[in-house]
Amino acid sequence: MSNYGTTRQPGGGAPAKDKTTDYHTALFRRLSWEGTVPIEIRVDPKELPANSDRGLECYYIQAPRVSYLPLLLPEIRRFLMDVVFDEAAASGLKEEDWWFETEEGTITKWHWPIGLIFDNHTISLSVRSSAPVASSQAQPLRLILHLASPPTEKLMLQPSQEACKQAFMGQLKEADFIRWGSTKRVTGLRKLEQDGIWEGIREHNFDDYWRVASKVTPSATLPPPAPAPGASAHARPPSTDAPSTFDRDGAYSVRSIPVRVYLPDGPILQEFAPPLLEDGSPNTLNSFLSTHLPLLFPPRPPAPPPSRSKPNPQPPSVPQLAYVMIQGVVSPSEAEMGWLGVCMAGADGWLSICVGINR
Amino acid sequence: MRGLRLEASSDTNGLNSFEDALKALDNYKKKDPSKVVVRFKAVGNAPIMKQNFYKITSSNRFQAVIQFLRKELGWQAGEPLFTYINLSFSPAPDDTVANLFKACGTDGHLIVNYSTTQAWG
């Protein structure tokens, strides 16, 4: 397995515990990278050029979650030109006028990762429809391909690969800024490396991507040990603690994890997400979401004090109104934001949290 | 018909949970009417505007800020205009002013740099 998920050690061999961290980091990064979603693309029948072979105008792709729609266009175009379109009628088509929308009329954005488009759409459908939640079989994302009159304001970008690359690099820098307050890690990359990370996405090559990404993604260190309950920070002996092996570039040293929360049909929230809370414990999905979306993720009240009849009281349960989906997977509420930010983020460095509603 | 429904005390995922969730979603959809102070700063040869500070509604997308800037500068759609936050990065066009301010605001405003050439691309 590729070595690019490793923590950076100050020197000497990595202790066994860190080798486990390396393995899990690489595993989850690989799983996120290899995730794909089914897409069904159908040309708007009203726009099919004359003499097109109707009945064949549907194209199916199992697309990588970390890729982008503009990167799929060449493949789609090849299929349509080979199989569907009459050459003469199709010669006037301009790819820069092509655009997609969902069957529900949502215009899909060129700069959103495909996995995000898919999850956001799936959740949106599940909230709107009165039908029971879909079975475990993933329903394809059904897109209508239009060949003309792009709604440029809503699309915000040209469908060109160059525009997509620029948007991607912009997101990478914004993520860098959120983490550290500067973009020097990304801007410090050589031009060859900046091109290389995009090539990794274009060619869907994990190693090529992570060769560069490992230079700008914080290392997946373990959080520093939380202070024991009741102990104050001052009581901790200063010399024997984690600070001596504290990784200044680690996941738990960032100012904030670059994270966006997508509610079905909007809005998109962006909130400060420190890796550690004020009491030194790791910030979890639960603490983050109950702070910023308390109506959907009500904070759990503390357990009542122990009594003779109930020596080990549990905190009262709260209604599970909503769930969290990251890279297509429903995530446990105790997942740590710091870890999620370096192991389950998208290729552009952003952790996309899609919120769904339980029925 | 609420009176006819049996309330199970241990049932925390009853019918009303879904409705509560929908109500919560509606609540979160409400547009924030507050405004953010945006400070436009010219870079390189870009012209400096007479007025550089503007109050822009938080819920606006950055795309709207770019269009607003174009209008203030009197520039057509085709003329090159590059915008950056804090001289650092170019935001996604659908990033909201609210989110950008929360993440990158300094001294109570959001600094938007603009230039005619790509500086930090």
UniProtKB/TrEMBL annotation, chain A:
> Which keywords does this Swiss-Prot/TrEMBL entry list?
Autophagy, Isopeptide bond, Membrane, Transport, Ubl conjugation
- Give the residue ranges for region: Disordered: 218-249, 296-318
In what ranges is there compositional bias, type Low complexity? Answer: 229-239
- Protein's cellular compartments: Preautophagosomal structure membrane
> In what residue span(s) does the Autophagy protein ATG5 UblB domain sit?
256-355
Q: Which InterPro entries match?
A: Atg5, ATG5_HBR, Atg5_HR, ATG5_UblA, Atg5_UblA_dom_sf, ATG5_UblB
Q: Does the keyword Nuclease apply?
A: no
Autophagy protein ATG5 UblA domain: residues covered:
33-146
The record ties this protein, via Gene3D superfamilies, to: 3.10.20.620, Autophagy protein Apg5, helix rich domain, Phosphatidylinositol 3-kinase Catalytic Subunit, Chain A, domain 1
Q: Does the keyword Heme apply?
A: no
Give the Gene Ontology MF terms in alphabetical order: Atg8-family ligase activity
Domain of life of the organism encoding this protein:
Eukaryota
GO BP field: autophagy of mitochondrion; cellular response to nitrogen starvation; piecemeal microautophagy of the nucleus
**Topology versus the membrane:** Peripheral membrane protein
Stretches assigned to the Autophagy protein ATG5 alpha-helical bundle region domain: 162-218
What's its job? Involved in cytoplasm to vacuole transport (Cvt) and autophagic vesicle formation.
Query: Which family, according to the similarity comment?
Result: Belongs to the ATG5 family.
How does this polypeptide assemble, per the annotation?
Conjugated with ATG12.
Name of this chain's protein: Autophagy protein 5
UniProtKB/TrEMBL annotation, chain B:
Query: Where found, per UniProt?
Result: Preautophagosomal structure membrane
InterPro entries this protein is in? Atg12 (IPR007242), Ubiquitin-like_domsf (IPR029071)
* Domain of life, source organism: Eukaryota
Membrane topology per record: Peripheral membrane protein
A Pfam match: APG12
Q: Which GO terms describe its cellular component?
A: Atg12-Atg5-Atg16 complex; autophagosome membrane; phagophore assembly site membrane
User: Keyword Cytoplasm, does the record have it?
Assistant: no
Q: Which region is the signal sequence?
A: none
Q: Which GO terms describe its molecular function?
A: Atg8-family ligase activity
Keywords noted in UniProt? Autophagy, Isopeptide bond, Membrane, Protein transport, Transport, Ubl conjugation pathway
Query: Coiled coil: which residue ranges?
Result: none
Biological process terms from the Gene Ontology for this record are:
autophagosome assembly; autophagosome maturation; autophagy of mitochondrion; glycophagy; piecemeal microautophagy of the nucleus; protein transport
SUPFAM superfamilies, per this entry? Ubiquitin-like
* Stated role: Ubiquitin-like protein involved in cytoplasm to vacuole transport (Cvt), autophagy vesicles formation, mitophagy, and nucleophagy. Conjugation with ATG5 through a ubiquitin-like conjugating system involving also ATG7 as an E1-like activating enzyme and ATG10 as an E2-like conjugating enzyme, is essential for its function. The ATG12-ATG5 conjugate functions as an E3-like enzyme which is required for lipidation of ATG8 and ATG8 association to the vesicle membranes.
The family database entries (PANTHER family) matched by this protein are listed as: AUTOPHAGY PROTEIN 12, UBIQUITIN-LIKE PROTEIN ATG12
Assembly and partners are described as: Forms a conjugate with ATG5.
Name the protein family. Answer: Belongs to the ATG12 family.
Designated name of the protein: Ubiquitin-like protein ATG12
Q: Which organism is it from?
A: Coprinellus micaceus (Glistening ink-cap mushroom)
